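[09:14] KT: can someone run the structure on this one? pasting the chain below
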Amino acid sequence: MSLITCNTFDNDKCTSIYLIRHAEKIRTDKNERDPLLNKSGLLRAKKWSEIFEKIEINKILSTDTKRTISTVIPTSKEKKIKIELYRTEEINYESFLEKNKGKKVLIVGHSNTIPETTNILIKNKFYDYIEDNNNSNLYFVNICDGIISHELLFYPIEGQITKDSI
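[09:31] RB: done, structure tokens below
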């Protein structure tokens, strides 16, 4: 089932979750624990906003780092949705799904947390960590009447979304 097809299930029983890693960050100082986005990252943040412009989003979650927040600021402004901060290790996923039932949620995180979160949501260790040079993945999880579907899309800055068959 494709992202577009799943997004057409607009009822209170379906929950759609979009998960992305932060955009490209400045890498000049290896000791910098919380770097800003570089030029490519700023461009990618704008491109994510363009993608999500056509998709209903009810909630935006981001970890509390400059790179994740900056990645989602354009989407937050476009959608007029406040960014809510979260800590991956503090999420109770059962409670999260219950509270967000019927909503469309965008989650921004990191190369290790986004695949892990996706795996927890789909109840299967399906996705591996994201390679350090890959900021293009869009994970999509749809839960509708207890049926879980998911897919991984790639969004290169200069290209189109392509589907990794699942």
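[09:33] KT: thanks! Residues 3-12+32-103+110-142 form one domain.
[09:34] RB: yep, looked fine to me
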